[in-house]
Amino acid sequence: MSVNFDRVPCTVVTGFLGAGKTTLIRNLIEKLDGKRLAIIVNEFGDVGIDGEVLKGCGIESCPEDNIIELANGCICCTVADDFVPAIDQILSLEPRVDHILIETSGLALPKPLVQAFQWPAVKARVTVDAVIAVVDGVALAEGRVADDHHALEAQRSQDDSIDHDDPIEEVFEDQIACADMIVLTKTDLLDQASLAAAKGRIQAHLPRAVKIVPAANGAVDPSVLIGLGLAVEDDIENRKTHHDDELDHDHDDFDSFVIDLATVTDPEALAARISATAEAENVLRIKGFIDVANKPMRLQVQAVGSRVNHYFDRAWAQGETRQSRLVVIGEKGIDRAAIEKMLAA
Ligand SMILES: Nc1nc2c(ncn2[C@@H]2O[C@H](COP(=O)(O)OP(=O)(O)OP(=O)(O)O)[C@@H](O)[C@H]2O)c(=O)[nH]1
């Protein structure tokens, strides 16, 4: 029997909350059908929604056992405890996987994660093929992430400390700073002028020449993103981020909780409530599954800011508890009681 000692390539998909990481990965899984894939899905909230969405793909080359969920925290903070065992588990899979995809949480900093690939036990077996940063075209076009003003000011003052203390922008900029490729999502919702504005905002924040790939609903040719062979673990120290000097960082700037709701009778009314709540209470992200009365199907809800998508994604399984449960993420200090009240109204 011949044993293949080649290192398994791993693509790290980063990007701010709701930018479209899961949508992109889902699309990649479908297009890479034939390649044996394993996926690590990391989420900030306590309840794994993205893993559940990806498991629903039903693609033979990426069975459910190959999808490992690391919920309840950020992969960048739990590298030793969670990430290394997950890699061990993946590398012991039979048949051997051809490629690993990691979806980081929307608040994770990619640099500490990539640095973990320098550990001898990992480096001998896995290499970072590329870091892909997924950016929300609509949010960028509307100027909701990455304020040009700061970038311009930093350039003008020739100050290479780009610290400006907005937690959302810092996370966003750190993700961009580590990227080998940018996927600009939601282009189906952008006209030419908005697309140009979104691209301009990214370009203002790119520390080096990195390609921007536009995508609608995650549709990108996988050969553009996979198989780049960049061994990013060898270059990651050169990528300057806001958190370089921190031995350890926490996510104190953000808050997440789970809200259980009663069975819903009117999905449209719920979507309107979610949108109004996100707007009024400054919520960044709401996602989850809802039990709709008299429907055999489960309702999936995805809100990014006040933009809400909802659709029936699959039938409730036999014996599965039908429940309505939403994960809410926002900046520290969001008013849980007010949010619960508005959502339940
Ligand atoms: N119209 C449109 N919607 C998109 C596109 N990409 C993602 N979405 C929607 O945006 C919402 C968030 O997408 P996800 O793929 O879950 O985003 P994510 O980055 O994985 O989110 P987190 O893991 O919570 O950070 C969902 O409702 C998606 O359907 C796109 O290209 N076009």
TrEMBL record:
GO biological process annotation, one example: cobalamin biosynthetic process
Record domain CobW C-terminal: where: 254-345
Q: Which Gene3D superfamilies match?
A: CobW-like, C-terminal domain, P-loop containing nucleotide triphosphate hydrolases
Annotated GO CC locations: cytoplasm
List UniProt keywords, sorted A-Z: Chaperone, Hydrolase, Nucleotide-binding
What reaction does this enzyme carry out catalytically?
A: GTP + H2O = GDP + phosphate + H(+)
MF GO annotations: hydrolase activity; nucleotide binding
Q: Which InterPro entries match?
A: CobW, CobW-likC_sf, CobW-like_C, CobW/HypB/UreG_nucleotide-bd, P-loop_NTPase, Zinc-reg_GTPase_activator
Q: Which SUPFAM superfamilies match?
A: Hypothetical protein YjiA, C-terminal domain, P-loop containing nucleoside triphosphate hydrolases
Which family is this sequence assigned to? Belongs to the SIMIBI class G3E GTPase family. ZNG1 subfamily.
PANTHER family in UniProt: COBW DOMAIN-CONTAINING PROTEIN (PTHR13748:SF62), COBW-RELATED (PTHR13748)
Q: What the protein does?
A: Zinc chaperone that directly transfers zinc cofactor to target proteins, thereby activating them. Zinc is transferred from the CXCC motif in the GTPase domain to the zinc binding site in target proteins in a process requiring GTP hydrolysis.
Please report the name of this protein according to its UniProt entry: Cobalamin biosynthesis protein CobW
- Lineage start: Bacteria, Pseudomonadati, Pseudomonadota, Alphaproteobacteria, Hyphomicrobiales
